[in-house]
Amino acid sequence: LQVPGKPVIPFIEGDGIGKDISLPSQKVLDAAVEKAYGNSRKIIWKEVLAGEKAFRETGNYLPDETIEAFREHLIGIKGPLQTPVGEGIRSLNVALRQTLDLFVCLRPVRWFKGVPSPVRFPSLVDMHIFRENTEDIYAGIEYMTGELDAKKFRDFLVNEMGVDKIRFPESSSFGIKPVSKEGSERLIRAAIKYAIQRQLPSVTLVHKGNIMKFTEGAFKIWGYDLAENEFANHTFTWRQFENIKKEKGQMDAEKALNEAKKAGKVIVKDVITDAFLQESLLRPYDHSVIATMNLNGDYISDQLAAMVGGIGISPGANINYKNGYAIFEATHGTAPNIAGTGNANPSSLILSGVMMLEYMGWDEAAEHVYDAMEHTFAKRRVTSDLYAQMEGATLMTTSEFAEEIIKNMH
Ligand code: NAD
User: Fold this and answer.
1) For residue 93, what are the β-bridge partners?
2) Ligand 1, closest atom to CA 91?
């Protein structure tokens, strides 16, 4: 995209620490835009309601006007939202993603020098997670034990589908895992395009297809089919490698792989989720873009975030690459234990804002924020979540930290 002039950007402040991090983050983004473009560009922030604040003011956790505002303005940003308990809503985040069909959850994972990390070579971590956002076990089709629907579903499995009833005692609950070809393909297509555009070396399909053959296994097969058919000139797959190996031997397969790498092709491979979680810790440099399903993506996102300083500094976005809708968001929750104390780290939301600026085509402004954050971390100015782990660090409140970033914009 190349968003012109002075766009209106709707934002949800968010619950808990949302109130603490929202305004300081906007100040950082505004300063960077001004630095990059003077008066010719400016974000016009428009608050829209969701979560507790929306419920207090309108009696509705996710008012229609909020959805409409995101539809109208295409791009928006949000703080964390508390999941209402016992209100008939599973999760506001899931509702937003499903209503706007934001099928990709994109989480780039990159390390800032100086930030404490549990891995030995954090500077080698450069991964981009594409998590499918609308399907899988998170689709919200569940039947609870004891309820009539659970009983009906069990009877259906036993009587109509011929499933052995010993496997499902009366007390069974059920969750359905829908995975479609279209849903998988659009996610994997977006991941491959992203890798090609950014000249990244590989796309890893992460799945549990060894166990769940017709859902996660299909995801892998559809991914390979897509790469080999739609992106034949730009990719080389492990499946092609295996086929050459079978027909012509290891040497020829290695040769084809090396030629593909030399030609700058994206290598599309696949790894089983459990192996991936281990590999990504031991050899993070083996993986670049990761395409995976909803539940796997949820786990993977937090593990990889921990490798570069935790959810307090990892950004995210929910995107529909077909119609352009995008909501950028802090990846952490509402952190009720530190809300209002000035201890919240606003980095996740600020870096989500950086992703937003890049998405808008405002790269110069994005670079200003990124460079200034690099400086701030290098000077060991941090909020309390990182302070305890960093020798010689200076402790800052949420707004002091944001001000420091603005000071470090050159
Ligand atoms: P959480 O992310 O809110 O907190 C986990 C831990 O990380 C806490 O110790 C918290 O203090 C710390 N933490 C989180 N963000 C931080 C930040 N920016 N700076 C410093 N420390 C930070 O997870 P939780 O406690 O499991 O969830 C609380 C609520 O948030 C729940 O209602 C949950 O549903 C919701 N939630 C929302 C989102 C979202 O809106 N995207 C994501 C996750 C959880």
Assistant:
1) none
2) 34
